[in-house]
Amino acid sequence: MQEFKYTYQDWVDGELDKLDIFRLLRDDELSSKDFRRISLEQSKAYTKLLYNAFETLKLEFASRYKSSFLKSKWLELHIELWAENLSSLEEQYPDIAKTVATSSTDGRYTLTKQQVDQFDYCEINDSLMKSISFNLVIESYDDMPNIYYIIAANYYNWLLWYKESVSKSEPTINYSERDTYEASLKDAENAARQAKQQVSYTWPNLFKNTEQADIILNLLKEHLSSSGQWLTEPKGRHLVALCMELESKGYFKSQNAITNPAKAAAFNAQFDVKLAAKNFQPQKRNDAEDYREHFQHLPKYSCSS
Fold it and tell me: Where are the domains of the chain?
């Protein structure tokens, strides 16, 4: 039996000290089994942090934008600020855009166990935890500029989209008799509540019994890469078919308890895909029906299992 220089336990104990586990796997210093185990934890925490930090920026934007009496000017200055942030990052790290474009070098595989635990803590769904997420991004700037660049680039693109989306609206001062701070706070809280299921639903949370989540993954190994990404094409129809099969066999919570956006968010985070809520609508389910045969080997759920 081959012995490897590093193990999963070394990562838990902090012995890897931000070494890139993808390179350790490539150099035959880490087993594929331990790589998959570590990378799954890293990718889940990484995705969660990115999502929560991005939502924090949007919530803060909504609050400040609503309180401004010169909205178009404030938006223009805000876009300029983030364009400068991106330019500064690209000057400091010339290859950063190219680096973050591929998942093997976007920084996730250097996350330590301590960082993963920190990022996981931000799963709690309220505006305070989202703010903590973004603060963690800021704190990791020097050690992990990639993660900050991903947030900045996506937020900048969102700002450009937002500017275009409101440009056709009739200009108005939008003065409210309500206290501006209280109104903005309420709007932010409402937005956080609307995002609740998308943030809180991960793959295990879809299950009545969360312990069944890993059992099902083990039964799907032929469809997964060593890092847990879904391989079988067409990915969308196969995953919708998988969802239908797990629902029909009693694994998932009631459909009334889980919205389609929540399902999409959970599947995307687990399998590194880009499903949308519409993928789980009736017509798309009909299109995926023939693919359920690939998952007939999954046993029916039993409360005693």
Answer: 12-195, 204-295
